[in-house]
Design brief:
With 94 residues, this protein is of the alpha+beta class. The chain is built from two helices and four strands. Strands 2-3-1-4 form a four-stranded antiparallel beta sheet. It binds ligand LWBT4IAB. The site of the ligand O=C(O)CC1=CCC(=O)O1 has 7 residues, from strand 1 and helix 1.
Length: 94
């Protein structure tokens, strides 16, 4: 199942610099692992924003939920999830 996910990041300005750097480093490592596992198939920066647009390929909404909750930055994310279905005009569907 494919899910379009937007993550808007809002790390509090008063969070200690070391903690902020640690969160970003661990988030990157987790994102790379999930990409290598084939779960996080697209990761794009939204131009001009501290946000990303991602596509996840997971077995279920429950799996996506667990992945999102496991992200180190999760407490500082506003997450918007859109389930994706095949479009009949997609070339791959012809
Ligand atoms: O910077 C972001 O958009 C948040 C994030 C997701 C994966 C990652 O490495 O950073």
């Amino acid at each position: 199942m494919l899910f379009h996910v937007r993550m808007d990041v809002a790390i509090p300005h008063d969070l200690a610099r070391d903690r902020r750097d640690e969160l970003i480093t661990t988030e990157k490592a987790r994102a790379l692992d999930l990409q290598r596992d084939g779960k996080w198939v697209h990761l794009w920066r939204v131009a001009g924003k501290y946000s990303n647009i991602s596509v996840f390929d997971v077995d279920s909404a429950d799996e996506l939920h667990e992945i999102l909750w496991s992200l180190p930055l999760f407490p500082y994310l506003t997450v918007t999830v859109t389930p994706l279905a095949r479009h009949p005009s997609d070339l791959a569907m012809q």
